[in-house]
TrEMBL record:
InterPro entries: Metallo-B-lactamas, RibonucZ/Hydroxyglut_hydro
Protein name, UniProt field: L-ascorbate metabolism protein UlaG, beta-lactamase superfamily
Pfam families membership: Lactamase_B_2 (PF12706)
Domain Metallo-beta-lactamase: 101-294
Cellular component, GO annotation: cytoplasm
Species this protein is from: Pontibacter ummariensis
Length: 334
Protein backbone atom coordinates (compact mmCIF):
# COMPACT_ATOMS: atom_id res chain seq x y z
CA UNK A 1 0.00 0.00 0.00
CA UNK A 2 1.18 3.52 -0.78
CA UNK A 3 0.05 7.00 0.20
CA UNK A 4 -3.67 7.67 0.59
CA UNK A 5 -4.20 3.90 0.90
CA UNK A 6 -3.83 3.51 -2.85
CA UNK A 7 -2.66 0.15 -4.11
CA UNK A 8 -0.16 0.77 -6.91
CA UNK A 9 0.88 -1.97 -9.29
CA UNK A 10 2.67 -2.06 -12.63
CA UNK A 11 1.54 -4.81 -14.96
CA UNK A 12 2.47 -6.11 -18.40
CA UNK A 13 2.43 -9.39 -20.30
CA UNK A 14 5.57 -11.06 -19.00
CA UNK A 15 5.65 -13.37 -22.02
CA UNK A 16 6.18 -10.46 -24.42
CA UNK A 17 9.22 -8.33 -25.13
CA UNK A 18 9.16 -4.81 -23.68
CA UNK A 19 11.04 -2.41 -25.94
CA UNK A 20 11.35 0.58 -23.60
CA UNK A 21 14.31 0.14 -21.30
CA UNK A 22 13.47 -0.18 -17.60
CA UNK A 23 9.72 0.13 -18.24
CA UNK A 24 7.96 -1.68 -15.38
CA UNK A 25 4.59 -1.91 -17.10
CA UNK A 26 1.33 0.00 -17.05
CA UNK A 27 0.55 1.65 -13.76
CA UNK A 28 -2.69 0.64 -12.05
CA UNK A 29 -4.20 2.38 -9.02
CA UNK A 30 -6.64 0.23 -7.07
CA UNK A 31 -6.99 -2.02 -10.10
CA UNK A 32 -7.67 0.78 -12.58
CA UNK A 33 -5.27 1.75 -15.35
CA UNK A 34 -3.65 5.15 -15.08
CA UNK A 35 -3.27 7.50 -18.01
CA UNK A 36 0.49 7.39 -17.74
CA UNK A 37 0.96 8.15 -14.05
CA UNK A 38 -2.44 9.54 -13.02
CA UNK A 39 -6.00 8.25 -13.12
CA UNK A 40 -8.35 9.97 -15.53
CA UNK A 41 -12.06 9.56 -14.91
CA UNK A 42 -14.17 11.80 -17.16
CA UNK A 43 -16.23 13.68 -14.55
CA UNK A 44 -19.99 13.22 -14.65
CA UNK A 45 -20.39 16.94 -13.99
CA UNK A 46 -18.80 17.74 -17.38
CA UNK A 47 -20.99 15.19 -19.14
CA UNK A 48 -24.07 16.81 -17.58
CA UNK A 49 -22.78 20.26 -18.50
CA UNK A 50 -22.47 19.08 -22.10
CA UNK A 51 -26.02 17.73 -22.13
CA UNK A 52 -27.45 20.91 -20.59
CA UNK A 53 -25.44 23.47 -22.59
CA UNK A 54 -26.69 24.50 -26.04
CA UNK A 55 -24.24 23.72 -28.83
CA UNK A 56 -23.01 27.10 -30.18
CA UNK A 57 -22.64 25.44 -33.61
CA UNK A 58 -26.08 23.86 -33.55
CA UNK A 59 -27.39 25.63 -36.67
CA UNK A 60 -24.15 25.14 -38.56
CA UNK A 61 -24.17 21.46 -37.71
CA UNK A 62 -27.83 21.13 -38.66
CA UNK A 63 -27.11 22.43 -42.17
CA UNK A 64 -23.81 20.58 -42.69
CA UNK A 65 -24.67 17.47 -44.68
CA UNK A 66 -21.11 16.28 -45.25
CA UNK A 67 -20.56 12.54 -45.36
CA UNK A 68 -17.41 10.77 -46.53
CA UNK A 69 -17.69 9.43 -50.09
CA UNK A 70 -18.04 5.65 -50.43
CA UNK A 71 -16.52 3.55 -53.19
CA UNK A 72 -18.76 0.50 -53.54
CA UNK A 73 -16.21 -2.18 -54.39
CA UNK A 74 -14.81 -5.29 -52.75
CA UNK A 75 -11.89 -5.88 -55.13
CA UNK A 76 -9.42 -4.80 -52.45
CA UNK A 77 -10.30 -7.90 -50.42
CA UNK A 78 -8.74 -10.26 -52.95
CA UNK A 79 -5.74 -8.08 -53.80
CA UNK A 80 -2.25 -9.04 -52.67
CA UNK A 81 -0.95 -5.46 -52.84
CA UNK A 82 0.12 -3.63 -49.70
CA UNK A 83 -2.56 -1.05 -48.95
CA UNK A 84 -4.70 0.81 -46.45
CA UNK A 85 -8.48 0.82 -46.96
CA UNK A 86 -10.77 2.92 -44.77
CA UNK A 87 -14.04 1.24 -43.78
CA UNK A 88 -15.35 4.19 -41.77
CA UNK A 89 -14.68 5.62 -38.28
CA UNK A 90 -11.54 3.83 -36.97
CA UNK A 91 -11.94 0.64 -39.02
CA UNK A 92 -9.24 0.01 -41.60
CA UNK A 93 -8.12 -2.97 -43.61
CA UNK A 94 -4.32 -2.82 -43.70
CA UNK A 95 -2.22 -5.21 -45.76
CA UNK A 96 1.54 -5.25 -45.16
CA UNK A 97 4.01 -7.88 -46.33
CA UNK A 98 1.21 -10.26 -47.26
CA UNK A 99 -0.38 -10.00 -43.78
CA UNK A 100 -3.88 -8.51 -43.46
CA UNK A 101 -5.00 -6.55 -40.39
CA UNK A 102 -8.39 -5.10 -39.48
CA UNK A 103 -8.40 -2.26 -36.95
CA UNK A 104 -11.15 -1.50 -34.43
CA UNK A 105 -13.95 -3.24 -36.37
CA UNK A 106 -17.31 -1.48 -36.12
CA UNK A 107 -19.27 -2.59 -39.15
CA UNK A 108 -22.84 -1.94 -37.99
CA UNK A 109 -24.86 0.73 -36.21
CA UNK A 110 -23.95 1.48 -32.61
CA UNK A 111 -26.53 1.31 -29.82
CA UNK A 112 -28.76 4.39 -30.37
CA UNK A 113 -26.29 5.79 -32.97
CA UNK A 114 -26.71 4.88 -36.64
CA UNK A 115 -23.94 4.89 -39.21
CA UNK A 116 -24.14 7.93 -41.46
CA UNK A 117 -22.35 6.12 -44.30
CA UNK A 118 -22.32 2.56 -45.54
CA UNK A 119 -19.50 0.08 -45.91
CA UNK A 120 -17.98 -0.49 -49.36
CA UNK A 121 -19.16 -4.12 -49.18
CA UNK A 122 -21.18 -6.41 -46.95
CA UNK A 123 -19.46 -7.20 -43.62
CA UNK A 124 -19.52 -10.91 -44.49
CA UNK A 125 -17.38 -10.20 -47.56
CA UNK A 126 -14.37 -9.21 -45.45
CA UNK A 127 -12.18 -12.32 -45.78
CA UNK A 128 -8.55 -13.42 -45.50
CA UNK A 129 -7.98 -11.34 -42.36
CA UNK A 130 -5.09 -12.54 -40.23
CA UNK A 131 -5.24 -10.21 -37.22
CA UNK A 132 -7.70 -7.90 -35.49
CA UNK A 133 -6.00 -4.86 -33.97
CA UNK A 134 -8.10 -3.64 -31.03
CA UNK A 135 -6.85 -0.31 -29.69
CA UNK A 136 -9.32 -0.15 -26.79
CA UNK A 137 -12.73 -1.37 -25.72
CA UNK A 138 -15.06 1.60 -26.15
CA UNK A 139 -18.10 0.43 -28.08
CA UNK A 140 -17.30 2.54 -31.15
CA UNK A 141 -13.98 0.65 -31.43
CA UNK A 142 -14.72 -2.85 -30.17
CA UNK A 143 -18.14 -4.02 -31.34
CA UNK A 144 -19.22 -7.54 -30.41
CA UNK A 145 -21.37 -8.18 -33.47
CA UNK A 146 -18.60 -7.00 -35.79
CA UNK A 147 -15.99 -9.23 -34.15
CA UNK A 148 -18.39 -12.17 -34.29
CA UNK A 149 -18.95 -11.61 -38.02
CA UNK A 150 -15.22 -11.38 -38.73
CA UNK A 151 -14.39 -14.51 -36.74
CA UNK A 152 -17.24 -16.45 -38.33
CA UNK A 153 -15.90 -15.68 -41.81
CA UNK A 154 -12.20 -15.73 -40.89
CA UNK A 155 -11.63 -18.75 -38.62
CA UNK A 156 -7.88 -18.16 -38.84
CA UNK A 157 -8.05 -14.66 -37.35
CA UNK A 158 -6.32 -13.75 -34.07
CA UNK A 159 -6.99 -10.68 -31.94
CA UNK A 160 -4.21 -8.39 -30.70
CA UNK A 161 -5.62 -6.52 -27.75
CA UNK A 162 -4.78 -4.42 -24.69
CA UNK A 163 -4.28 -5.80 -21.20
CA UNK A 164 -7.43 -7.28 -19.60
CA UNK A 165 -9.47 -7.14 -22.82
CA UNK A 166 -9.58 -10.93 -22.91
CA UNK A 167 -12.75 -11.23 -20.85
CA UNK A 168 -14.67 -9.26 -23.50
CA UNK A 169 -13.21 -11.38 -26.29
CA UNK A 170 -14.10 -14.59 -24.46
CA UNK A 171 -17.68 -13.33 -24.10
CA UNK A 172 -17.81 -12.75 -27.87
CA UNK A 173 -16.53 -16.22 -28.74
CA UNK A 174 -14.58 -18.45 -26.37
CA UNK A 175 -12.68 -19.93 -29.31
CA UNK A 176 -11.32 -16.62 -30.64
CA UNK A 177 -7.55 -16.64 -30.02
CA UNK A 178 -6.09 -13.43 -28.66
CA UNK A 179 -2.93 -11.95 -27.20
CA UNK A 180 -2.85 -9.09 -24.72
CA UNK A 181 -0.09 -6.49 -24.49
CA UNK A 182 0.78 -3.47 -22.40
CA UNK A 183 2.40 -0.28 -23.63
CA UNK A 184 5.81 -0.62 -25.28
CA UNK A 185 5.33 -4.35 -25.83
CA UNK A 186 5.92 -6.33 -29.02
CA UNK A 187 3.33 -8.97 -29.91
CA UNK A 188 4.64 -12.48 -30.50
CA UNK A 189 3.43 -13.21 -34.03
CA UNK A 190 3.70 -15.87 -36.67
CA UNK A 191 4.34 -15.03 -39.50
CA UNK A 192 7.10 -12.65 -38.53
CA UNK A 193 7.38 -10.46 -41.63
CA UNK A 194 5.42 -7.70 -39.87
CA UNK A 195 6.30 -6.58 -36.35
CA UNK A 196 3.40 -5.25 -34.28
CA UNK A 197 3.88 -3.12 -31.17
CA UNK A 198 1.31 -1.85 -28.67
CA UNK A 199 2.10 1.76 -27.77
CA UNK A 200 0.73 4.49 -25.48
CA UNK A 201 -2.31 6.71 -25.92
CA UNK A 202 -4.01 9.29 -23.71
CA UNK A 203 -7.54 8.01 -23.26
CA UNK A 204 -9.72 5.96 -20.85
CA UNK A 205 -12.02 2.94 -20.72
CA UNK A 206 -15.64 2.28 -19.88
CA UNK A 207 -18.28 -0.10 -21.25
CA UNK A 208 -20.51 -0.54 -18.22
CA UNK A 209 -21.30 1.06 -14.84
CA UNK A 210 -18.57 -0.72 -12.85
CA UNK A 211 -15.57 -1.13 -15.18
CA UNK A 212 -14.07 2.36 -15.37
CA UNK A 213 -10.45 2.04 -16.59
CA UNK A 214 -10.37 -1.71 -15.93
CA UNK A 215 -9.13 -2.38 -19.50
CA UNK A 216 -6.12 -0.66 -21.07
CA UNK A 217 -6.14 1.60 -24.16
CA UNK A 218 -3.39 2.32 -26.64
CA UNK A 219 -2.13 2.59 -30.20
CA UNK A 220 -0.27 0.37 -32.66
CA UNK A 221 2.95 0.51 -34.65
CA UNK A 222 3.29 -1.89 -37.58
CA UNK A 223 6.80 -2.30 -38.94
CA UNK A 224 8.34 -4.06 -41.94
CA UNK A 225 11.89 -3.64 -43.29
CA UNK A 226 10.53 -1.04 -45.75
CA UNK A 227 7.70 0.76 -43.96
CA UNK A 228 6.51 1.86 -40.52
CA UNK A 229 2.82 2.58 -39.94
CA UNK A 230 1.21 4.20 -36.90
CA UNK A 231 -2.44 3.69 -35.96
CA UNK A 232 -3.31 6.11 -33.17
CA UNK A 233 -6.56 4.62 -31.85
CA UNK A 234 -8.27 7.24 -29.67
CA UNK A 235 -5.95 9.68 -27.96
CA UNK A 236 -5.46 13.20 -26.71
CA UNK A 237 -2.28 15.11 -27.47
CA UNK A 238 0.56 14.11 -25.14
CA UNK A 239 4.26 13.30 -24.74
CA UNK A 240 3.79 9.75 -26.05
CA UNK A 241 4.17 10.90 -29.64
CA UNK A 242 7.75 12.01 -29.02
CA UNK A 243 8.44 8.74 -27.17
CA UNK A 244 7.16 6.72 -30.13
CA UNK A 245 9.27 8.69 -32.61
CA UNK A 246 12.36 8.25 -30.42
CA UNK A 247 11.88 4.47 -30.47
CA UNK A 248 10.97 3.99 -34.13
CA UNK A 249 12.06 7.05 -36.06
CA UNK A 250 9.85 8.69 -38.68
CA UNK A 251 6.46 7.15 -39.44
CA UNK A 252 5.84 6.51 -43.14
CA UNK A 253 2.07 6.37 -42.61
CA UNK A 254 0.09 7.97 -39.76
CA UNK A 255 -3.59 7.09 -39.29
CA UNK A 256 -4.80 9.87 -37.00
CA UNK A 257 -8.11 10.64 -35.24
CA UNK A 258 -9.44 14.10 -36.09
CA UNK A 259 -13.07 14.10 -34.87
CA UNK A 260 -15.21 14.11 -31.71
CA UNK A 261 -13.32 17.07 -30.19
CA UNK A 262 -16.15 19.43 -29.19
CA UNK A 263 -17.03 20.60 -26.63
CA UNK A 264 -13.36 20.96 -25.74
CA UNK A 265 -14.05 21.12 -21.99
CA UNK A 266 -15.19 17.50 -22.17
CA UNK A 267 -13.19 16.06 -25.07
CA UNK A 268 -9.72 17.59 -24.88
CA UNK A 269 -8.30 14.96 -22.51
CA UNK A 270 -9.36 12.02 -24.64
CA UNK A 271 -9.49 13.16 -28.30
CA UNK A 272 -7.54 15.47 -30.62
CA UNK A 273 -8.85 18.23 -32.84
CA UNK A 274 -7.35 18.53 -36.34
CA UNK A 275 -4.71 21.05 -35.25
CA UNK A 276 -3.56 18.74 -32.45
CA UNK A 277 -3.57 15.73 -34.78
CA UNK A 278 -1.30 17.58 -37.19
CA UNK A 279 0.99 18.60 -34.33
CA UNK A 280 1.22 14.95 -33.29
CA UNK A 281 1.89 13.89 -36.89
CA UNK A 282 4.74 16.36 -37.12
CA UNK A 283 6.17 15.11 -33.82
CA UNK A 284 6.12 11.64 -35.38
CA UNK A 285 7.84 13.05 -38.48
CA UNK A 286 5.06 11.48 -40.49
CA UNK A 287 4.82 10.85 -44.21
CA UNK A 288 1.29 10.06 -45.37
CA UNK A 289 -1.47 11.45 -43.11
CA UNK A 290 -4.76 9.50 -43.22
CA UNK A 291 -7.53 10.98 -41.02
CA UNK A 292 -10.12 8.87 -39.22
CA UNK A 293 -12.75 9.08 -36.48
CA UNK A 294 -14.92 11.57 -38.37
CA UNK A 295 -17.97 11.46 -40.60
CA UNK A 296 -19.22 7.95 -39.78
CA UNK A 297 -20.99 8.44 -36.43
CA UNK A 298 -22.39 11.59 -34.82
CA UNK A 299 -20.59 11.60 -31.45
CA UNK A 300 -19.94 15.25 -30.64
CA UNK A 301 -20.79 18.90 -31.26
CA UNK A 302 -18.64 19.90 -34.23
CA UNK A 303 -20.30 19.90 -37.68
CA UNK A 304 -19.45 16.71 -39.59
CA UNK A 305 -17.50 18.47 -42.35
CA UNK A 306 -15.46 20.70 -40.03
CA UNK A 307 -12.50 18.29 -39.59
CA UNK A 308 -12.15 18.04 -43.38
CA UNK A 309 -12.24 21.80 -43.86
CA UNK A 310 -9.71 22.43 -41.08
CA UNK A 311 -7.29 19.82 -42.40
CA UNK A 312 -7.50 21.29 -45.90
CA UNK A 313 -6.76 24.75 -44.48
CA UNK A 314 -3.80 23.44 -42.48
CA UNK A 315 -2.42 21.64 -45.52
CA UNK A 316 -2.83 24.76 -47.66
CA UNK A 317 -0.81 26.65 -45.05
CA UNK A 318 2.12 24.27 -45.42
CA UNK A 319 1.91 22.58 -42.00
CA UNK A 320 0.64 19.23 -43.26
CA UNK A 321 2.44 17.33 -45.98
CA UNK A 322 1.10 14.07 -47.34
CA UNK A 323 -2.59 14.55 -46.52
CA UNK A 324 -4.83 11.87 -48.04
CA UNK A 325 -8.62 11.87 -47.93
CA UNK A 326 -9.57 8.41 -49.19
CA UNK A 327 -13.16 7.50 -49.85
CA UNK A 328 -14.47 4.64 -47.76
CA UNK A 329 -13.43 1.56 -49.73
CA UNK A 330 -10.73 3.35 -51.74
CA UNK A 331 -7.31 1.65 -51.43
CA UNK A 332 -4.24 3.74 -50.66
CA UNK A 333 -1.33 1.71 -51.99
CA UNK A 334 1.75 1.53 -49.78
Amino acid sequence: MEQDNQQIRHIKNDRLETIKQDYRGNKTINGRFANGDELYNPPLSKVLRWQLTPNPQREQKKHDDYTPPVKKDSAFIGSDLDMVVWLGHASFLIRLGGVTFLTDPVLYDLPMIKRRVSLPCEPEALRNIDFLLLSHAHRDHLDKKSVQTIFQNNPQVKALAPLRAGRILRSINKHLPYQEAGWFQKFDLVPEQVEVYYMPARHWHRRGPFDMNKILWGSFVLKTPNLTLYFAGDTAIGPHFEEIEELFGPMDVCIMPVGAYKPAFLMHRSHMDPHEAVKAYNLLRGGTFIPMHYGTFDLSDEPPGEPVRLLEQIAAGGMLQGLKFPAIGEPILL
